[in-house]
Every structure is written in C-alpha cells, then in structure tokens.
C-alpha cells in the first residue's frame, strides 16, 4: 500500500532565481524505511518541509506538483489535519523545543491530540530505555545529543503513520545511534513509514530498504537493491589519515586535577591532560559525558577557579578570570552554528574577526565559499551554516582551535574538505586542534591522540582507540 506519493514536485524560494527542487517524483510504501542523501543544500530538507506542510503554510515558496498522504492530497489539508499523520524532527532540534522539562516536552504533542493520561504514561515508559534521559531534568541542562533524543522521543511518542527525520544521528554517540536505528527499524514492522535524511551512510545504510540520492534539487537515483545500497556506503568509507610531524614539546593546554559540576551534578572529576602545541586531539564519549563542558572550560565560557578546582594553563601560563594577555588565542566552533552567525552575508561573517585580508582570502578559497559569499548565513542549509561557522572561526587564526561536532550535517565531500582544510592549517600554521565528534571518519582524519571521557574521568590513547570505540 502506498503511504506517500510525490509527483512532479518543484519548489522555488522567493530569494532564489532557480528552483530548490526540480520535478521530484517517488512513492513510499507502508512499512518502508527510506534513506535520503545528497550534498548539503541540494533540497533534502526542503522536500521534508513540503511533505509536512511547513511549505507553504509557514515558509513562503512557490510550489507545484502533487503530494499525497495515503489517498489524501495535502493541497486540500490544513496543518491541524496532518499532525497526527506526519511527525518530523528537524536538524535544529533546539528550535523545536517548547517546554522547560523533559517529561513536559515528551507529553506536549500527545496532550494536544487529547490522548488519555494513562496512554501518555505508557508510551513514555516504552521510550525511556531508548532515550536514556532523566524525565525530571531541565532541558537547558542537557547536552546537544540529549536534546536531540528528547525531540526524537516527542515525535516517536505520537506514533504518526509517516515519520520524517532530518539528520537524526547528527548529535548522537555511536551506541545511541545504533539503538535508535534498531528502534525505528522495529517501527516499520508495525506499519510505520520513515523517510530519513542522513549523511552517515556508514551507520544508516544497513537499516534502510531504499536509498534516494539528490543532486542540485533533482532526484537522480532510487536504489532498492541491498548490494547497491551498501556499495554506495563503501564509496564513502575511504579517508586519508595524516601522520602529524607538527607537534612541539611546548604545552598548549595543560589541565591538572580539574573538576566541574552543574549544581550538585558532577560532570568532570579530577581530570588531567597535557596537549602539546600543534597536536590534534579528538575527544570521544557518550552524550552528556562532559565533552562540550571540557571545551567550554578551556575556552573560558565556563569559569574555573584554579586554586579550588584544579589548574588550567594555556601555553604554560595559568588561566585567570579575565584571561588578560590570552585574548584571541582560542577559537571555538559551537555545536549549533545558529549560535554564532551574526552578519548579513557570508563574506562579512568570515571577515568579522578575520586575522587580515590575505588570510581571509585564503580561508574563503580553502573552504570553497565563493558561491555563498553574498548569501545571508541564516538562509543557508544547516550543513552550509556549519561550513561557514567553521570558516569564520578559523579566519581569526587562533593558536588553539576547539571544534564541537564540526562535521554535523556535512555530506561526504564537505566532510572531506573540512578535515583536509583543518589538517592543512595545522601543518602550515601549527594550530592546535581539539575536536569533539561522533563521526568515525572525522575522528580518524583529525587524530594524533584520543581523549575518551566516561563517568567524569578520562583515558588517553592513540588512533587505535577510534576503531575500538566505533566497533
């Protein structure tokens, strides 16, 4: 039975001359898990917005073609008609959260549909082993990956016939990704259909029934053969790893017996590590273990009193509250690019804190941003925003570069480009790279040493830990 039918879909935003989607047609059957992939900005998220009526009801765009859910044409439907049929999780999960506490967020959609309290309680109990989150927690205290789990749970709890997922694995650690994929695969056995936009084919390809590939707004391939799907996944496995000869004996970041808590909740306990200038360190660990907290402490976004909570030094100098003399030493790429894009064009964004004009030109060329320079940063796809955020921070030429999930939302080519550029900057200018990632390819490409955080403590080892962690 056909659950979703898309025929001749064409979409053009008012700010663009060319359509973002061009004559896209496909059918999804009941109980199918379909994986949709393609380069950043090719129209994947736009397609999802059309299916759940975000376009044209909330986002203005010229739209032609037919979309049917079951036997109903969505052109004749209102948003309130579709919420019980189609659930969606966006790339920017923070924009989808409306409550202060986890349990309230999970129950919000069900309450609006008038579901009985006993049924709400039952559904949330079923989801708890998958989400692995304290239902009484305040959402602002959660990590990016934990927030993604909350939104995922809120969507899944409503049990819509069609579930749309936009980069659902982006912020999830390896074990959570496997659990999530197994769970949504089990939903297809209950007759639910899932259309998932995802770049991490190494994880998702083994679970999907079909693979759709888009290029520049056009659906170019529809693959339903298992061997052909896995062949597409194998094409994206090769990444060049570099031996770094740039590390020096000088210490860039030195942490000794550092502890940190949020209120009564201990996150890091007696952590000690010495990172050399020019070294590339990858930080691994499950969602909520303290990876982003560690970066925030190094950057100064979270205060550390050296006398009470251990010692933090940058280039052998103790860090004080005002960090006098250490300004501009550190660049920090946040997990959510929307939190650090401020200017009215990509060019002005990259120039904002640029080291000098010549270096800015070098960064624009390395990241291949020429075609995006006149665009407003917030008009870009999430993957393109990430690329611009990385470039704008790198353009300040920091000595220490902190990267919190720098490859989220990146297609294979952009992921390769980002890691190649970061390695080039490490080699040319001796930038110290400290990268938090859940992506195996990025971890292997940006790694001299690995720091794994678990239960508040850390273990340190070589590149071999990456293979062990993702096995």
TrEMBL record:
Principal localisation: membrane
Record flagged with keyword Nucleotide-binding: yes
Chain ranges passing through the membrane: none
Domain ABC transporter, chain residue ranges per copy: 4-241, 253-465
Lineage, opening ranks: Bacteria, Bacillati, Bacillota, Clostridia, Thermoanaerobacterales
Subcellular location field: Cell membrane
Official protein name in the record: ABC transporter related
Pfam families, alphabetized: ABC_tran (PF00005)
PROSITE patterns per the UniProt record, alphabetical: ABC_TRANSPORTER_1, ABC_TRANSPORTER_2
Entry GO CC: ATP-binding cassette (ABC) transporter complex
Membrane topology per record: Peripheral membrane protein
Keywords: ATP-binding, Cell membrane, Membrane, Nucleotide-binding, Translocase, Transport
KW Cell membrane (keyword) present: yes
Gene Ontology MF: a single term: ATP binding
Family designation: Belongs to the ABC transporter superfamily.
């Amino acid at each position: 039975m056909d659950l979703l039918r898309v025929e001749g879909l064409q979409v053009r935003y008012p700010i663009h001359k060319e359509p973002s989607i061009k004559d896209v047609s496909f059918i999804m059957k009941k109980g199918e898990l379909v994986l949709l992939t393609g380069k950043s900005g090719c129209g994947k998220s736009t397609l999802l917005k059309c299916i759940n009526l975000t376009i044209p009801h909330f986002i203005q765009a010229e739209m032609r073609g037919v979309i049917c859910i079951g036997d109903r044409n969505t052109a004749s439907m209102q948003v309130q008609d579709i919420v019980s049929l189609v659930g969606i999780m966006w790339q920017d999960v923070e924009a989808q959260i409306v409550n202060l506490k986890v349990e309230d967020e999970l129950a919000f959609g069900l309450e609006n549909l008038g579901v009985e309290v006993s049924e709400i309680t039952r559904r949330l109990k079923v989801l708890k082993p998958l989400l692995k989150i304290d239902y009484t927690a305040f959402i602002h205290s959660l990590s990016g990956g934990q927030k993604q789990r909350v939104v995922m749970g809120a969507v899944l709890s409503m049990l819509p016939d069609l579930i749309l997922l936009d980069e659902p694995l982006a912020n999830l650690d390896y074990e959570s990704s496997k659990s999530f994929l197994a769970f949504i695969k089990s939903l297809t056995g209950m007759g639910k259909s899932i259309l998932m936009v995802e770049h991490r084919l190494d994880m998702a390809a083994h679970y999907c029934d079909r693979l759709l590939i888009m290029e520049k707004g056009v659906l170019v391939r529809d693959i339903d053969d298992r061997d052909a799907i896995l062949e597409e996944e194998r094409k994206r496995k090769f990444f060049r790893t570099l031996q770094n000869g740039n590390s020096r004996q000088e210490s860039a970041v030195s942490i000794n017996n550092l502890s940190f808590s949020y209120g009564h909740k201990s996150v890091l306990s007696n952590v000690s590590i010495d990172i050399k200038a020019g070294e590339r360190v990858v930080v691994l660990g499950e969602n909520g273990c303290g990876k982003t907290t560690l970066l925030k402490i190094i950057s100064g976004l979270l205060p550390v009193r050296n006398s009470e909570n251990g010692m933090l030094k940058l280039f052998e100098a103790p860090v004080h509250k005002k960090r006098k003399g250490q300004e501009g030493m550190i660049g920090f790429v946040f997990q959510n690019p929307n939190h650090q894009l401020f200017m009215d064009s990509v060019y002005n964004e990259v120039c904002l804190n640029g080291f000098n004009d010549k270096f800015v030109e070098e960064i624009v060329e390395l990241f291949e941003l020429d075609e995006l320079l006149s665009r407003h940063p917030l008009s870009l796809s999430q993957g393109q925003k990430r690329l611009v955020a990385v470039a704008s921070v790198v353009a300040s030429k920091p000595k220490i570069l902190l990267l919190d999930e720098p490859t989220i939302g990146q297609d294979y080519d952009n992921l390769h480009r980002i890691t190649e550029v970061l390695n080039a900057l490490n080699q040319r200018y001796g930038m110290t790279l400290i990268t938090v990632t859940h992506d195996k390819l990025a971890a292997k490409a940006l790694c001299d040493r690995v720091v794994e955080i678990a239960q508040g403590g850390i273990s340190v080892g070589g590149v071999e830990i990456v293979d062990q962690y993702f096995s």
